[in-house]
Design a protein that fits this description.
The protein is of the alpha/beta class. Helix content is 45%, strand content 20%. Helix 1 runs parallel beside helix 2 and helix 9 packs antiparallel against helix 10.
Length: 267
């Protein structure tokens, strides 16, 4: 089965991390026939050099440049249209894909009637000594039930059918955070089937700065949109809606150090 890889990169991405991510993509036990890399606005010279090194080595790498930074959901929607295969595997520019990740995802796609498949992820910090596993429900019914409380899919681990995502309208470009959460809820509400492989297939890079960025009123506005959509799709009743939104809003307003502790406790 042929498949595409979809990745977005922007100016703040670390060239060393990008290099490690691309190396893990092109070193898979089962390789993609197409790798779509969307440059979301201007990039640093160091990032350009990493991209050029890989584009010279691998003809499967196709690079598309957006003239300005539009944000992750817009960049991914653009890249979706450029993918030539029905099966798409998402990769992030700073994560490391385990050697058999693509092979296991494709095997699951071929043997099951699924529109989206993810996995556990292994979270690590810059020292790579502090490892945590973010587990998610494996079966579709449990994934649907978990939606009312948290995102039941790890976005950096996901693979999906292009037609299913496009039929549901793709990523909501209003959401600079949580766009994947809202998309999964929308897809499941329309009858698409999901699954998670109960195994770590991605090493997901986390940092204190990443967690600190996820605070403030802007992120509360994203949470409100997601809460309203979850209620609209039938996953939340009125009480659930208020509990979901208020608990998240409180977390967004916590001092950064407290938010870091809360993040670790909720994984």
């Amino acid at each position: 089965m042929d498949f595409s890889v979809l990745m977005s990169v922007y100016i703040n991405d670390d060239p060393v991390h990008l290099d490690a991510s691309l190396l893990s993509i092109f070193s898979q036990s089962l390789c993609a026939s197409q790798v779509v890399l969307v440059a979301d606005g201007p990039l640093t010279q160091d990032v350009h050099e990493v991209i050029n090194q890989y584009s010279e080595k691998f003809r499967e790498l196709h690079i598309f440049y957006l003239p300005e930074n539009l944000g992750l959901p817009s960049a991914l929607n653009f890249g979706l249209e450029k993918c030539i295969n029905e099966v798409i595997i998402r990769c992030d520019a700073d994560d490391i894909n385990h050697h058999h990740r693509f092979e296991k995802l494709i095997e699951c796609m071929e043997t099951g009637d699924y529109s989206a498949i993810g996995s556990f992820v292994e979270e690590f910090d810059e020292s790579t000594t502090n490892l945590r596993v973010r587990k998610v429900p494996s079966e579709h019914e449990d994934i649907s039930l978990a939606l009312k409380k948290r995102n039941p899919m790890n976005h950096p681990s996901i693979s999906f059918l292009k037609s299913a995502v496009l039929n549901c309208g793709a990523y909501d470009v209003r959401l600079k955070n949580g766009q994947d959460y809202e998309l999964w809820a929308r897809m499941i509400s329309r009858g698409y089937k999901f699954k998670n492989i109960p195994e770590c297939l991605v090493s997901f890079r986390v940092s204190k700065e990443m967690i600190k960025r996820r605070g403030g009123r802007k992120y509360i506005s994203y949470d409100l949109i997601i809460a309203k959509k979850l209620k609209e799709y039938g996953f939340l009743n009125l009480l659930d809606f208020y509990v979901f939104f208020i608990t998240r809003a409180v977390g967004r307003l916590l001092p950064n150090d407290f938010r870091l502790v809360l993040y670790k406790l909720c994984r």
